[in-house]
Specification:
By secondary structure, the chain is α/β, with parallel strands linked by helices. It has a single domain, classed as Rossmann fold, CATH 3.40.50.150. The chain is built from 11 helices and 16 strands. A hairpin with a 6-residue loop joins strand 13 and strand 14. Helix 1 packs across helix 2 and helix 8 crosses helix 9. The longest helix is centred in the C-terminal third of the chain and has 25 residues. The two termini are 21 Å apart. It catalyses: a 2'-deoxycytidine in DNA + S-adenosyl-L-methionine = an N(4)-methyl-2'-deoxycytidine in DNA + S-adenosyl-L-homocysteine + H(+). It comes from Natronorubrum sulfidifaciens JCM 14089. This is Type II methyltransferase. Pfam families: N6_N4_Mtase.
């Protein structure tokens, strides 16, 4: 099996290089309005944002920042198939503007924007971030009432385009082979994720400055979402590509991917990471199988039995739908220079095989 991966240098407010209804899934983490590290970016997009911040008008700046993101959401509506899912990792912001401290509820504003475009909101996910400091409060310390809760979580907002789910041909292999294990379903489809940090190996990114200027999230998050909401053969889009975490997750999960990134430097750095992708892919898939076998051992110790056996692995499974699971790993990956796109685009081709066992 082969997958293709394309990344464009460009403004995600205009995804003209991507055809209508060409992605089945969106997984992305946009810049968060009213987080100071993104002020310069938003001001470059609309100078009125910088003027509002200087004038101490936080609400006007917040609305103007989201107006820029709204143009991206218009493009996502166009390129996502009917029934496709959009997964947006977004955090709220706390900030003092003109000596007034408040929270800016980015997740609520994004939810409103997608609903207004006809997307159906689905139950969302909270994931717990590591605290930025040992202090668990902001404000007046130990004296009530002017201390504030520290935000240590972010949202994964989930939306479906249109009123109906995607349809597949009965018994579609690409869907059943992409199934997840019973115990994975129970963890992944919980509305609170507390264990995502460090669960999957990731690749090092040498340029700390570039990482600081990205909206990077742990590899585990896009990998789970891709496994949860797409099948083999599907295409995953990330309009805020950054360090390429979503593309790495798509490669490991055996899906195609598309990405858009404003800064060409990110694409140049990504090429340096290609050689390590096969080993990353193998370790990710192997970890899933090993965790399943640990689950099997625990369940048997509890005196519980299994009714079904996996077709491709020597292990039992809980449900009939798990029997045909076939995990994939990247066996080779190459950059494709076909003369299209020039320096403004990168193309990659990955070959995948079923997970091999030593």
């Amino acid at each position: 099996m082969e997958t293709t991966h394309r990344v464009f240098v460009g403004d995600s407010r205009d995804l003209a290089a991507i055809d209508d209804e060409s992605a089945e899934l969106v997984v992305t983490s946009p810049p968060y309005p009213m987080i100071e590290m993104w002020d310069d970016l938003f001001t470059e997009l609309d100078p009125a944002i910088g003027e509002a911040l200087e004038a101490g008008d936080g609400r006007a700046a917040f609305d103007a920042m989201h107006a820029q993101l709204d143009r991206v959401w218009d493009e996502l509506e166009r390129v996502l198939v009917d029934g496709g899912i959009a997964c947006l990792n977004v955090g709220d912001a706390t900030r003092s503007v003109d000596d007034s401290f408040r929270v800016y509820a980015n997740h609520a504003r994004v939810l409103e924007a997608f609903e207004s475009r006809g997307f159906d909101p689905l139950p969302d996910i909270l994931w717990r971030k590591p605290a930025n400091s040992a202090a668990k409060f902001m404000g007046s310390g130990m004296i009530p009432p002017n201390a504030y809760v520290t935000l240590e979580h972010e949202y994964v907002l989930l939306f479906r385009k249109g009123g109906e789910s995607r349809s597949f041909e009965p018994g579609a292999d690409r869907r059943y082979e992409a199934a997840y294990f019973w115990e994975e379903r129970n963890r992944w489809f919980s509305d609170v994720w507390t264990e995502v940090r460090g669960e999957l190996q990731t690749l090092e990114f040498a340029d700390d400055d570039l990482r600081d200027r990205s909206a990077a999230y742990p590899l585990e998050i896009p990998y789970r979402l891709i496994c949860m909401y797409s099948a083999y053969g599907d295409t995953v889009l990330d309009p805020f590509w950054g360090t390429g975490t979503t593309t790495l997750a798509a490669m490991c999960a055996g899906r195609n991917s598309l990405g858009s990134e404003l800064e060409a430097a990110f694409l140049e750095r990504f090429d340096d990471r290609l050689a390590d992708v096969p080993s990353l892919s193998h370790s990710v898939s192997r970890a899933r199988l090993e965790r399943h076998r640990e689950f099997v051992a625990r369940r048997r110790e509890e005196g519980k039995s299994f009714e079904y056996d996996a077709t491709h692995y020597e292990t039992p499974v809980v449900t009939k739908m798990e029997r045909d699971i076939q995990l994939r790993e990247v066996t080779s990956l190459e950059a494709v220079n076909d003369g299209l796109g020039g320096d403004s685009e990168r193309r990659y081709r990955a070959s995948h095989e079923p997970l091999t066992l030593e």
